[in-house]
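Consortium newsletter contribution from the modelling node. Members have asked for a concrete example of what our holo predictions look like. Here is one, prepared for the NAP complex that several groups have been discussing at recent meetings.
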Amino acid sequence: MPRNQQILLDNRPEGEAQASNFKLVETDTPALADGQVLVRHHFMSLDPYMRGRMNESKSYAQPQPLGQVMQGGTVGEIVESRNPRFAVGEKVVGFGGWQQYSVVDANLPGVLRKVDTSQVPLSHYLGAVGMPGVTAWYGLVKLIAPKAGETLVVSAASGAVGSAFGALGKARGCRVVGIAGGPDKCAYVRDELGFDDCIDYKVHSDVKSLSAALKTACPQGIDGYFENVGGMVLDAVLLRTNAFARIALCGMIAGYDGAPLPLANPSLLLINRIRLEGFIVSEHMEVWPEALAELGGLVASGKLRPRESIAQGLAAAPEAFLGLLKGRNFGKQLVQLA
Ligand SMILES: NC(=O)c1ccc[n+]([C@@H]2O[C@H](COP(=O)([O-])OP(=O)(O)OC[C@H]3O[C@@H](n4cnc5c(N)ncnc54)[C@H](OP(=O)(O)O)[C@@H]3O)[C@@H](O)[C@H]2O)c1
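And here is the predicted structure:
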């Protein structure tokens, strides 16, 4: 059996997460029992939610246990099988964690899903045609439920979730405006992802300025907002919402490392009779097949061209993860392992 490199959570962050919170170790992969398979990971996913799980505090999910392999999504290939449903060479998506190999009891429902790489590259099953894509789909279709012609806004627009949101919104005949950090990300959002406009929040240092830019980009006001960031961006969007706007509260990454996220004008929620709903995509498994089918079609037809930031090798994962929390990624952040 091959040797396996793993990254463990060694200690919990105090304030900002640090590379020293993680530890790289090497172990043997255990021999397989009946029903198990050995998966060699080709890519692993780095996601903002992992920051929350590094804390001990109570949340919708259990904290990442100390001294154990960092949890996370992976795509790879079966390299050994003692399960008749999975053959060596098949490509699978699973939750193998920050390590080169995982031993999986493939009889457990939902732990491994075979994927077809003839139309969609393997890595996209961790992004546009995976959990982040379904997240965008759920917030758009089930919470915002837009009508054609309405104006939608999404923050962190160039990222894994935001880019999928744009393609899904355009497919429903909406005006879609992104908010992203920096001219390169905004150019990609407009020119390659096909958003109607994109605002660089980094050139707007206060709510008034960002809200004025939103007024220009959204002349009919904002009917639906998909929130990934929180803080000043949410304040600026609220000022431009129409009556009966819907907000899908997906993430608040500006606060994940401990920064406070005060809301300047909560009364706008009442004045504009806004419906705001938080959600966790893993609690809505019933929509995944429909969402993945649409997202796979958008990627296969070139209507969604997801970008990826790929760090090389397991040892690069901690720095790449810290970079994701600072916006240094450009598109879906992955680590390539093999
Ligand atoms: N509720 C759910 O079930 C669920 C599931 C998946 C993801 N999410 C959430 O969805 C959001 C996007 O996730 P993703 O995987 O698509 O990540 P991503 O957008 O690919 O990467 C994160 C991006 O967030 C932006 N960002 C980071 N710090 C920021 C700050 N202080 N202020 C403003 N923007 C900041 C950066 O883009 P810029 O350079 O443009 O600022 C960065 O590239 C996250 O909040 C995540 O927690 C929620």
